[in-house]
Specification:
With about 230 residues, the protein is mainly α. Helices cover about 75% and strands about 0% of the residues. α5 runs antiparallel to α6, α6 runs antiparallel to α7 and α8 runs antiparallel to α10. It is elongated, with a radius of gyration of 27 Å.
Length: about 230
Amino acid sequence: MPIDDLLKNEIEHFKHVATIDAKFNSLNLIIELERRSKYEVLLYTHLKLWLKYYILSVTRKKFSYDEIIFEKVCSKISYLTKKKEQLQIVKFFIRILSQYQLTSELEQFKGYKKQLELEALIEEKKYFTFCLKRSLYSFTSLMVTLMISIVIFSSFFYILQEYFGCLSIELSKYTDTTFLNYIWNMVAYIFNIGEKLQLDSWHELLFMSFLKIYFYLLITYFIVKEITQKVEKI
């Protein structure tokens, strides 16, 4: 019998079976047939049903929640060819996990969701948004972003003052190397360490205020938030 006919018969069979396990097994077969036949019109819908019945099947068994297998779910979700669809279905599964208060599984799939968000942006060629999200992806990437930001803004500071003369801010001397001294002054300014920089004009105030706001948001909102979340998991 052709796969398409088998698929139609199994979809009809699913409608008439009564038990949770029977429906879950039927959905397993339906999804496999859809994948082999390349008939993906209802695959998204059937995967959502599969996730729902997977949770129901697992939670009603004797050993309950420890049977939810991350790799098994990810394998099924990967049947969808578009990352955006995979992302939407993971969000749906996260909502189900929240309803059943499955904390450990919830954290796993939140991490998977963040990964799919990046992959979906690449798929959609939204490279700027990808770079922005990637820089805020984890504590490590946030620290790298902080260090790179310090170097970049120190470079602007150095160029504007040394080459264009747009700024005339008196710096503290931390090292004999001019550019490195700008970096150390930037670090001191961000973290309010050492002597305060003397600003003599509105454009100096505007430039340094922008730096302060940028680093304040990066450190207090993103980095501190990430540290807090990690501490709460301990």
